[in-house]
Design brief:
Layout: H1 24-34, H2 48-55, E1 74-79, E2 89-91, E3 97-100, H3 101-118, E4 122-126, E5 140-147, E6 160-163, H4 170-188, H5 199-202, E7 215-223, H6 228-233, H7 235-250
């Protein structure tokens, strides 16, 4: 994901120091608590049932098509860089542009939206800096990006996922991350590139803009140099990996402790 600059006048997220959540003790506590027994009722602990009813209420300016029998769950999908810039740009030996990150992100995001919509969910396809992100309420929001077109080394392949630390429910945010990681890796065969997660992901601007009850994550689905073939020729598989990760979270599906990678946050 190329660093995304906000338009003039847009609110920027304040930079904080190293978050203690990623300390050794924090990780140990997370792993100990994240994979305790999960039941459908545990997903709605406390007053979350009331919060969920709020999430299901149509918001002004959002496309809504509610079932007459039961309300649809809302899911937000951000097509990284859409409406703002091109993101990473791939060129040939003559300097001609052959591929842009924003186009790859949009194609994946569109397929994810179609897949989730066909399963009965209400899905909003959002721009990078979408006015609807301000206070956005949904069961989950996932932002889709990709990494550099440049050759870095032979290890620059695979995907990355990071959760929002702004959420009021870190356990559920990390569960979304675990679901995305496991299901995406299982379907695509790509490896989790844990040692290249940067503040551009952990401090992603939308994390501080949405409603804090919305569980969210950002995924970089691949490196546009070494992973270009699967990203462009098997986009349907890439999108289904993201879709299955979201469904894993929403349906409260099982994720084993050994399947949760521990990220290394770069400075």
């Amino acid at each position: 994901m190329e660093s995304t600059k906000k338009p003039a006048g847009s609110r920027r997220r304040k930079t904080h120091g190293a978050n203690p959540f990623f300390s050794t003790v924090g990780i140990a506590i997370l792993v100990a608590t994240l994979f305790t027994a999960w039941t459908p009722n545990s997903l709605f602990a406390g007053n979350f049932q009331e919060q969920l009813r709020t999430l299901l209420t149509p918001q002004p300016g959002l496309e809504t098509t509610l079932s007459t029998s039961q309300p649809q769950l809302r899911i937000g999908i951000v097509a990284g860089h859409m409406g703002n810039d091109s993101g990473a740009v791939c060129t040939d030996e003559n300097g001609q542009v052959t591929l842009t990150e924003v186009d790859v992100n949009l194609e994946i995001a569109t397929l994810v939206r179609e897949s989730l919509t066909s399963r009965g969910f209400q899905v909003d396809l959002l721009n990078e800096f979408d006015t609807r992100l301000n206070g956005y309420r949904a069961v989950a929001l996932v932002s889709i990006h990709n990494d550099s077109c440049e050759y870095i080394n032979d290890e620059a392949t695979g995907f990355k996922v990071a959760a929002s630390l702004e959420t009021r429910d870190i356990n559920r945010a990390q569960r979304l991350t675990a679901c995305l990681t496991n299901r995406y890796q299982t379907l695509t065969g790509l490896t989790f590139h844990a040692n290249s997660i940067t503040p551009d992901m952990t401090e992603y601007h939308a994390f501080s803009e949405i409603d804090p009850n919305t569980i969210t994550a950002i995924i970089e689905t691949g490196f546009m140099y070494l992973d270009r073939d699967i990203l462009t020729e098997r986009t349907d598989l890439i999108a289904e990996g993201v879709t299955q990760g979201i469904l894993c979270f929403i349906n409260n599906e099982s994720v084993l402790p050994a399947e949760l990678p521990l990220p290394t946050i770069l400075p």
